[in-house]
């Protein structure tokens, strides 16, 4: 009986996967026709297919399958984003990236916490926990947007890099505040800074080493014996980068992103792949990334709990309005404007103010808080999903229009 039940579960899961692939392919086609990022359509499709409306797909957020898709999918999308960056551009804007991915997270979280305190009347520590949870931007959301909407290089690469590097800061702040909220320790600025530096350096080191090793195996002039298996090597290295960094208690997402940067800039390290093989690898990465974001955002949509969200909808919408319209602009201008090396224009700063979608990483943090029964976890989880829906549906769908108005759209 138990074996039969397992087979039925497997069939049900396989059916859900098939439905996601079919619906995702149609959504991808539709997004091209109406010219908005496909993650917006994926999210809406997921909401319709989920238990709240059609009930066609019901994969629990805490299931093993969902967690594998979230972790690996986010890693692969992040790798794809890193591979598209160019070191020459990053040299111009690295100061802004470092400041906005560290100090910027604190500023955004602090302003959002003040809004939450007054909107919900919760204790200060709970408000701070909410602010920290949604303060970091999300690479799994932003990378696909900039892959589909051709924005001026230095702006797109700054926002993508920020989203990759600030997840460590967001997680550290969230768990530092959680420790205080649950009475397990006292907050220490020194300890938090040491932890941030350690996680960042180990993540960068892990990603750099594995990126160089992968480039050696597929692009070295003499020793590239796995050149024909470049897609397999990248899969192995993406998993290895994340798990290797995670095993060292470092940022796995940062490691994957740096791995992508090294592999994407392999020519700078003296490696070169034959033109045909390079195009084959790029095509493989493009297709795989599309499948990953299809699964991530359709599943994210199916897991929206409207009954729970409606309880906090008014206060949540007010908090997210402050989050989008006050916290983000203040963060961008305080962190980027002083960077005289980058010489940001007003239009570039305005675009970065609007582009800070929330997605998988904050959702994962909120899920962990619920699992740990943190104070205010139900409210934090609900507001996080409100942030995901509003930022993706409003900001992501208007990215191309805003870029065009500000003169930042690159004609392809």
Task: Summarize the entry for a quick read.
The chain has helices at about 1-35, 40-50, 65-85, 85-120, 125-135, 140-150, 155-180, 190-220, 230-245, 250-265, 275-300, 305-310, 315-335, 345-355, 360-370, 375-395, 400-405. With about 400 residues, the protein is mainly alpha-helical.
Give the helices and strands, then pairings:
Elements: H1 2-34, H2 38-49, H3 64-83, H4 87-120, H5 124-133, H6 139-148, H7 153-181, H8 189-219, H9 230-247, H10 252-264, H11 275-302, H12 306-311, H13 313-336, H14 346-354, H15 360-371, H16 377-395, H17 399-405
Helix pairs in contact: 1-2, 1-11, 2-11, 3-6, 3-9, 3-10, 3-11, 4-5, 4-7, 4-13, 5-7, 5-16, 6-7, 7-8, 8-9, 8-10, 9-10, 13-14, 13-16, 15-16
Describe the 3D structure.
The protein has 17 helices and no strands. It has 412 residues and is mainly alpha-helical. It has a single domain, classed as Na+/H+ antiporter like fold (Up-down Bundle), CATH 1.20.1530.
What's the number of helices? 17
Topology as H/E string? HHHHHHHHHHHHHHHHH
CATH topology: Na+/H+ antiporter like fold
CATH architectural name: Up-down Bundle
Shape: globular
* Number of self-contained structural domains: 1
- How helical, in percent, are the residues? over 70%
Assigned CATH class: Mainly Alpha
Distance between the termini: 58 Å
Tell me the major beta sheet: none
Count of strand segments: 0
